[in-house]
Specification:
heterodimer; A: about 575 residues; alpha+beta; Aldehyde Ferredoxin Oxidoreductase,  A, domain 1; Aldehyde Ferredoxin Oxidoreductase Protein, subunit A, domain 2; Aldehyde Ferredoxin Oxidoreductase Protein, subunit A, domain 3; 3 domains; 6-stranded mixed sheet; 22 helices; about 40% helix; B: alpha+beta; 5-stranded mixed sheet
């Protein structure tokens, strides 16, 4: 048996000429989606030495292989390009509806090139069953994301979803995100946040993408019966399990605090005295009096980890308030209250900013004495001033390294220019190895390993394994919170295309993705010497037994050499 | 012997060992044994007053243990598992 979805296309958008065209999707690429597809396109079509905010950068929007099918929790989309933050290749992944909608239309990737001659020009990209076209969007310049999507919702059919960049992206700030609308209210609450790809979108004058699949149905598998059985059994098995994310990732706060990986005051400690008031359990408690609750950000999701957070007045504030945001905008800045973090999260979503990068940058300003620790109101005021060109707000919008440069402060926690996420590389050294070696830089979604008991001899394999599993997961469309393993993914691929996908093939797909990304970075000028963390990670100890990141360069380089597959590669779950 | 199944985030004290056999006894007695052999393990599971941490879930042979049931006896062949949610978001 063979077959599966046919007639797939790539949509090319030329922002210089303001034209669009479709090309057939190569048959040889059928198992490439999301992150792996983005890497392949960038390696072939983007000059790695280009200015990330210039016309030669290429912005890729690529749904996963399984997006648009009936596979549970499989609708994620990868946004890719050369990062203005790291100057290397970047993939940032988002939930919401756009991934499923593009794939229902058979569009495996939107590839955006060029730049309008007039940087003041704004455009919207309309995609539907009839085709694709660019339309003028000057009227939306510097419009905040929620107001923009509210207006787009009146302009396009109810079946449409949107991707957008906020003012931060338009102002080409290196911590800018790409917003994606969720499935309930079409709020721009889901973000491909890391690496500043919103600035790449903004630099191209692309304010939004509206995707309307109309009544197009789900993508059908070659082996419909087998695929249906897989969906049913996988869902049943997941729902019979502990469903650890049913109260959201914010519930992780107490465990992270216990493990000394809930960074406080610009990572000078791994524990916050305010863990109890930042714990996601407080958010869940608020549902009974304020409203809100748990929901799924995309259709067909069985994890339902996204919280909808209401204020004391019972009105919607934000969604989803995640562990990473509570850590970086909360504990890392000594903010005590989850409600303040909810306001800050909303501001970041409005402006189109990565909450990790923003919280890390503000933490540096506070550590340098520019702002008071824990002054949430000053943080909100600073973010509101971002569109006005305020120097400190601009530094925050440009990320942790820019904040370090502005203040001359010595403690700037980053790897390759990107802020280190909550999961700290000192108690979690194998995760630190991922931050050093991943083509993505300091990105926990590239290969998170929360095992403080691992010994140095285990770091290289554990990191390589986690990076392989997550690379394949982020190429599949599956959400990392579903925690699929490589056997799960290859079985779904096999049923989708009616052909067996072997363990060797799925291992190769993961490795090729990493190899393409490393090759891009090599051509961009990176060397092995760049595979390191900022000095403060090896100088400032934290933890119950104070420890620094002290993994040897040999182990770090060994992580980038392909190791033979072991059985545990195929049973290891994606984590992020 | 009963077996403790330990998820990765809790393997600091066991130095990445994920399964440990313990002598039959109550859950609390098994935790005491784990603490003797792997100092620092117990405090990951129970509070200073001996109650299960709110964020910890224990499963015996696949069934969730009631939060107050730390006196439950573990027999030969039983598996007691800590389940931990870890994700960034």
């Amino acid at each position: 048996m063979s077959g599966g979805p046919t007639g797939d296309r790539i949509l090319y958008v030329d922002m210089t000429a303001q034209t669009t065209r479709f090309e057939p999707f190569p048959e040889a690429w059928k198992l490439l989606g999301g992150r792996a597809l983005s890497a392949k396109i960038l390696l072939e079509q983007c000059d790695p030495t280009c200015d990330p905010l210039g016309p030669d950068n290429v912005l890729v929007m690529a749904p996963g292989v399984l997006s648009g099918t009936a596979a549970p929790t499989s609708g994620r989309i990868s946004i890719g390009g050369k990062s203005p933050l790291t100057n290397g290749i970047k993939e940032a992944n988002s939930g919401g509806q756009p991934g499923q909608h593009l794939m229902k239309l058979g569009i495996r990737a939107v590839v955006v090139k060029g730049q309008p001659q007039d940087p003041a020009k704004r455009f919207g990209l309309e995609v539907n069953a009839e085709g694709a076209k660019l339309v003028p969007a000057d009227q939306y310049a510097l419009r905040w994301n929620y107001a923009l999507c509210e207006e787009l919702a009146t302009r396009y059919p109810k079946t449409a979803s949107f991707m957008s960049c906020g003012p931060a992206g338009e102002l080409r700030m290196r911590g800018a995100s790409v917003g994606c609308t969720d499935q309930d209210n079409r709020y721009p609450a889901r973000h491909a946040a890391r690496g500043g790809l919103g600035a790449v979108m903004g630099s191209k004058g692309l304010k939004y993408v509206a995707i309307d699949p109309g009544r197009t149905g789900v993508r059908q598998a070659a082996d419909r019966k087998g695929f249906g059985e897989l969906c049913k059994n996988y869902t049943k098995s997941y729902q019979a399990g502990p469903q650890m994310f049913k109260t959201g990732t914010s519930s992780v706060v107490p465990i992270a605090n216990m493990l000394h990986t809930f960074p406080y005051k610009n990572r000078t400690s791994g524990q916050s005295p305010d863990a109890a008031t930042l714990d996601g359990a407080r958010i869940v408690e608020s549902f009974s009096t304020r409203g809100g609750g748990m929901h799924n950000c995309m259709t067909g999701c069985i994890v339902q980890c996204s919280n909808i957070v209401h204020g004391a007045d019972g009105k919607y504030v934000t969604s989803a308030l995640e562990f990473e945001t509570l850590t970086l905008l909360g504990a890392n800045c000594a903010v005590k209250s989850w409600e303040d973090v909810a306001d800050l999260d909303r501001l970041c979503d409005e402006l189109g900013l990565d909450t990790i990068e923003t919280g890390a940058a503000i933490g540096v300003l506070m550590d340098a004495g520019v702002l008071e620790w824990g002054d949430a109101e000053a943080m909100k005021a600073l973010l509101r001033r971002l569109p006005e060109g305020d120097e400190r707000a601009k530094a925050v919008g440009n990320g942790v390294v820019a904040a370090g440069k502005l203040t001359g402060h010595h403690r700037v926690p980053h790897a390759r220019g990107q802020a280190i996420p909550a999961w700290d590389p000192r108690p979690l050294k194998a995760t630190g190895v991922t931050y050093c070696t991943s083509p993505m830089g300091a990105d926990h979604t590239a290969g998170l390993i929360v095992n403080p008991g691992l010994q140095p001899a285990q770091f290289a394999w554990e990191s390589q394994k986690a990076q392989l599993v997550n690379a394949v997961c982020d190429s599949s469309g599956f959400c990392q919170f579903l925690q699929p393993n490589l056997d799960d993914i290859r079985n779904f691929y096999g049923a989708l295309y009616g052909t067996e996908v072997s363990r060797e093939t799925i291992h190769d797909l993961g490795w090729q993705c990493l190899a393409d990304e490393w090759e891009f970075n090599k051509r961009a000028g990176f060397t092995d010497a760049d595979d390191r963390l900022a000095d403060c990670m090896s100088q400032d100890p934290i933890g119950a037994v104070p420890t620094v990141f002290d993994v040897s360069p040999d182990i770090i380089q060994a992580t980038k050499q392909r190791m033979p597959a072991r059985d545990d590669l195929f049973s290891a779950k994606a984590t992020g | 012997m009963p077996t403790f199944v330990i998820p990765a985030p809790y393997q600091g004290p066991t130095r990445a060992v994920g399964r440990v056999d313990v002598a039959p006894g109550s859950v609390r007695a098994c935790l005491d044994e784990m603490e003797r052999r792997f100092p620092g393990f117990r405090q990951q599971v129970v509070t200073g007053t001996g109650a299960l941490h709110r964020f910890v879930k224990l499963f015996v042979n696949g069934e969730q243990l009631d939060r107050g049931d730390l006196e439950r006896k573990l027999e030969e062949g039983d598996e007691i598992e800590i389940v931990a949610a870890i994700a960034g978001g």
